[in-house]
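Margin note from the TA: students keep mixing up input and output lines. Inputs are the sequences; the output is the structure of the whole complex. Example:
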Amino acid sequence: MTRSALPGLAIATAVLVLGLLLAFTVGRYPVSLGDLVSVLLAKATGGPQHVSDAVQSVVLQVRGPRVLAAVMVGAALAVAGTAFQGLFRNPLVSPDILGASSGAALGAVIGIFFSLGIFAIQGLAFVGGLVAVAAVYVIGSMVRARDPILVLVLTGVVVGALLGAGVGLVKYLADPYNQLPAMTFWLLGSLAATDVSDLLPLFGPVALGTAVLIALRWRMNVMSLPEEEARSLGVSTGPLRVVIVAAATLVTSASVATAGIIGWVGLVVPHLARSLVGPDFARLLPAAAILGGGYLLLIDTLARTMAQVEIPLGILTAVVGTPFFIWLLAHMQRNWS
Amino acid sequence: MIVEGRELTIGYADHTVGSGLNVKLETGEVLALLGPNGGGKTTLLKTLLGLLKPKAGEVQLGGKALGAYSIRQRARSIAYVPQVHVGTFAFSVETVVLMGRSAHGNLFSRPSAHDRDVAHAALERFGIARLSQRPYTEISGGERQLALLARALAQEPQFIVLDEPTASLDFGNQGKVMREIKALARSSHGVLFTTHDPNHALRAADRAFLLRDGTRIAEGPVASVLNRAQLEALYGSPVEQLADPETGGAAFLPGW
């Protein structure tokens, strides 16, 4: 039997539990552990509430949706990043490598530019991410090359740059007093505005895409081998690659549509998970999902408690992610275990 | 069982590498493919593996066109051992060998107890069972080559195709890999390997196929095909032949 993944999974789960406890209890309105447990118990069993309405409202209405959203977005970005790192055989790849984030960004700023409602903006962001990656995939497939993976990545970079120019143009044309701050805020990522109505449109795509990727986890190992080697092992790499890209893009676009652009999670968490359970995707994907949820939850708690004003998530993840990544480069140059 | 290329024209979309090639490999024999760089060895290898479509002619497996097999069926008949590489991710040796079982399960299946038994037996056979939990990226080149051989064997194929299995190995490991190649033929596998060293062909193969500029120079039993004149024609440079008067064995030295 292989080395047990249990200790690693236990640590990932502990991070998630710690994140959950802190996220519910810490904040401008502190909630004691006992109150938290009794609110959740009463909610779960349908029994009577023994805690004040204010505490109930903080736990269930204010923090509950935001906590769930943070866990889902973190898990989604981590799983997508893990899958893409395997697919592109490169541990420096993040979920937006094929333009999902830039497509979503363009969709969102266009929505803000035309003063659409929040759901229309999120819808445009979601569709923008999907369309961008689909375009990258179609263009990449039309280029006949020996190395389809490399062409795909390069196409993603080029299309991403073009979409970035589009975002820049819309920002330039936007009303600098109302629209531009809204765009900037969205582009930096935040879960501050999350409420219950955000959860279902987030949960559906994230659950579907994550389930597909985790179901394919045994094949992901083979997909991380060079193309011809994978095919000689009996794996139809072409169709499988489409499915993996589609699933990872689905979860990334849904996350970006809800929370804006949050970089680094999809890059850093797969490495942390790999150091916990090793590189075998069969255990890495579940571990990354759990750890990603806990990681973003901790960062989000930090974002809303560190200062008087909310700090955008994208800024915090970068501040935490950059030093970590430099450390990673220094210590793991030879192999990405 | 036989895998056979008939009147093959091989190459890529934009250029042709070789033509008029007939290759035949039976189970229980070892065929060595020799030739200068750029002469079409790898292209022929990939065509026989079904990774590259022939531009003309046909590859047949067991009397049926290779193209008629699904990619999974193919992988259960022909295994491929690529040139030793260090992977991107530090999978354990066991995980690497278990990947050889991919074609025996479906898209979602996890390795079964049987899969693990087969993988473990393959590790045992090549004497690297003790490395099963070590990261593939941290073992030696010779051990990596054996791990890839074990992965090929775990596919339970009839044929094993190896791309320069002795390149980049030290002298001792070269001998070890050649011994294992011969042993694979004894366990009724058909083995095809490419090499830059005629001595390796002489030592491990039954037959040799000499390929230059996409054309067959010679083919036949190693003892009759591998001689000074043929090798000089193949590589376009002088070759010295040594003979052991006691055993009648031969060896070749390049140059002069």
